[in-house]
């Protein structure tokens, strides 16, 4: 919209005006910015992510808490096992081996082999001492790591989907692309050579300063800034330029003297960082600087015959014949500019993918760290007798959910499905039969957590004291008067009631375990 408006304003405004010193100064500054990107390799683009390392960490954690039977199966199996081979090793039918197993089997097998030797076991796993997680603790650890591994795997898929964009060769080769757009395809260094910057070499200013010849940034710069041998204008770009080498309009440009004078006034920045925003700003400025006269485009000041011969009478410019076709800017008229614009677009896509990758990697790391912290805490938790009830919930939750899931999915009529509420819910249109009856996971999970939340009577047996008989806080806390420093308190005033001191922690832990169990099963 902005470019279209700017173009319209140029079409409506007079194209010709008296040429004066410094008329191309702003254009010089913009072209200077592009030259600097080409002559000094920009800072290498890099989008580092340690997602692969973190993902390996969750795989190792998951395998470390697996049963000894499974660790041995994975350790001794072929990483490239087929479905049939996996089923045989696991002692199950082949139809139970889904794509997740076959996709992850190489990772699981490699991890099991690595963890079977203390010399190759990562220090992070060693510190957890997962071998101590026996019985209930081991079961809870497996529930948590399975859920965490599922979450991490989904995040990893999103990161992997961005890799192709981050490995775009157009972006990794940006420095070389910029150099060639400035100095020419035939150039090998960042030195000015008329035979390279002008297509077919230089032959004469009016013949050189047209679209088909001045097809580099460097050629464009000398066309709009080098002084003609006639002396007018004396300083097309900046008055500080001495112009020791002029360009006779009737002769070819030779050597690099004229270029060296121009570039001397184009200092390189301290940090030459290539970004989509910086490149887009420069290319947009070039587009906006193009004047339109009789559908031809011109970079630089024009007058008279507008043949861009470098004089006050006929213009100090580059001509782009038929720049406008059918009222629109034609493509292919300024290849070097279009090349820069294309690179800016690719850079923008790259930068967005990089930002997304960093955000997802942060989320992935948080999930992995949380899983490790959970196992660490579980290894140091005082589970106590009340957790027999948690064990029962954990053992039954998967089986219960699976049964209810099957019951719901057998129903293919909306009316029958609604009769099974709240454990079932209809997810399709009422008038259309089909497999639209699904288990209401929220309702089923709530029932499970309610089962996990009871436990006062069992908790009382743990400490040998009936804490619940006390109705006053001071009487409740008095049960702890003979408890020695470092020992666990017998009773605690919890939720306005006197309870076994381990109850609250156990209850909260039970609820979190049930949630994790359902997440692992259902999602």
UniProtKB/TrEMBL annotation:
Keywords: Cell membrane, Glycoprotein, GPI-anchor, Lipoprotein, Membrane, Signal
Subcellular location as annotated: Cell membrane
InterPro entries in the record: Trypano_VSG_B_N_dom (IPR025932), Variant_surf_glycoprt_trypan_C (IPR019609)
Entry's Gene Ontology cellular component terms: plasma membrane; side of membrane
Principal localisation: membrane
ATP-binding listed as a keyword: no
Protein origin, superkingdom: Eukaryota
Ranges of residues in domain Trypanosome variant surface glycoprotein C-terminal: 408-522
Protein name: B-VSG
